[in-house]
Amino acid sequence: MSKEQDRTTRYQEGSLTLAGTVMLGTGVMIGAGIFALTGQMAQMTGLLFPLAFLAAAVVVSFSAYSYVKISNAYPSAGGIGMYLHKAYGNRLPTAFNALLMYFSMVIAQSFLARTFGSYTMQLFGGDDSGLMVPILGVSLIVAAFLVNLRSNRLIQGIASFIGILKIGGILIFGLAGVWIADSLSVDFSNRGEVGTVGNFLGATALGILAFKGFTTITNSGSEVKDPHRNVGRAIVISIAACVVIYTLVGFAVASNLSLAEIIETRNYSLAAAARPALGEYGLWFTVAIAMMATAGGILASIFAVSRMLAMLTEMKLVPHSHFGMSGSIQKHTLVYTVVLGVILTAFFDLSRIAALGIVFYLIMDIAIHWGVIRYLREDVKAKAWVPVTAILLDLLVLGGFVWAKLNTDPFVIGVAVVTMIVIAIVEQIFLKRTGGIEPPEGAHAQTHQHH
């Protein structure tokens, strides 16, 4: 038991304040969402993309209900891994969906890293060779890894500082962009040929990536002060703040660039929109914010993702090898997370990284809601119609997204399907071999409840 205690005491209970938790959540959300997704969403659905952000916020609001209910009932540093375990027990659905969440979070890291590279290269006139973006991205992940080897307080301090600068900066960008634009009348009639319902749903799915940072908050559950109240509140505040910011920025970009320009500069559309609106200084300003936002997002994301994998390892739901490393399990999971992120960043482009992330995330999200409806409804005092609505909305946007991708980039859907099959097979073999070595349900519940 002493070894078990040694592992679990590494979580610093009560070390995150409500404000710090909101900063961590918005830090991940704003870092991923707004800088790279704006252009990619415009590519899918034309100038309706600000509305796709709003549609995504509606879907995420229904989704958040299940997470708030479960995190109020069982605050835990394992977050989603623990939620799945509460619903499905020591079975394949828990391990499979928890790993989907894990991979979608690693993918989000790579997405941030490449966005960092794309924006940084705008200071040097772009990246014609195509080599500098992944190199910069990989360097950023390694730097974030080194900071993550330090303490919680340092991570919270840096994330909060970057968060305040970044949110202030993006608001200035949005307000200035809208203020300077010739007119606020975005021409919604000129949708190009991509204005179909399927493409709008696909863009909405991408928009969900811009909000999914709220799950980072659930992953730091037991480390939040007064978690039963503050985890739910932090989620609601983060989503509301992001709706305002994304809508503002969406209109600022749409008012300053034509649709063709937004699509052409899709990996760095905010920097491109800043140039006509605010001149060369605007470009520098926007790139600086983008660099801070993506750096802060990666910092918070690595923190949360390695926590989650450590919890899954403790729950004996995933295979674990030390590979000869010393130190705690969480140090090892930090290394695996960073290595995976580096590989993705080096070899996948932005739109493919985003596509993989959204497919994995939505399937895991559906599993969480189904778990609430089927197994946890009484325990967490949830009303069934909310998670039912969340599942229907998830299926709708996932269907739209897959349909749109099959028409433009079927390879990435193939990669997603193959990866999920491999995860399922490996996990099934692992769980059969270990024979469910978890203690029985009653004892297990006590082991993992934080008193």
Structural class: mainly alpha
Question: What string gives the helices and strands in order?
Answer: HHHHHHHHHHHHHHHHH
Q: What's the CATH topology name?
A: Amino acid/polyamine transporter I
The total beta strand count reads 0
How far apart the termini lie comes to 17 Å
Q: Tell me the strand percentage band.
A: under 5%
Secondary structure: helix percent: over 70%
Number of helices: 17
Which homologous superfamily in CATH is the superfamily? Amino acid/polyamine transporter I
CATH architecture: Up-down Bundle
Residue runs with pLDDT of under 50 for 5 or more positions: 1-10, 190-194, 437-451
The CATH class turns out to be: Mainly Alpha
Dominant shape: globular
Report the mean per-residue pLDDT as an integer: 79
Describe the main β-sheet briefly: none
Provide the domain count. Answer: 1
From the alpha-carbon coordinates, what is the Rg to the nearest angstrom?
A: 21 Å
Question: Can you tell me about this structure?
Answer:
It comes from Allohahella marinimesophila. This is APC family permease. The chain crosses the membrane at residues 21-41, 47-68, 92-111, 131-149, 161-180, 200-219, 231-254, 283-310, 331-348, 354-372, 384-404, 410-431. The protein has helices at residues 2-8, 18-45, 49-73, 80-88, 92-120, 132-148, 152-180, 197-209, 214-219, 227-256, 259-264, 269-314, 329-347, 350-380, 385-408, 410-434, 441-448. It is an all-alpha fold. The protein has a single domain, classed as Amino acid/polyamine transporter I (Up-down Bundle), CATH 1.20.1740.10. Helix 2 runs parallel beside helix 10 (227-256). The longest helix has 46 residues, at 269-314. The relative contact order is 0.20.
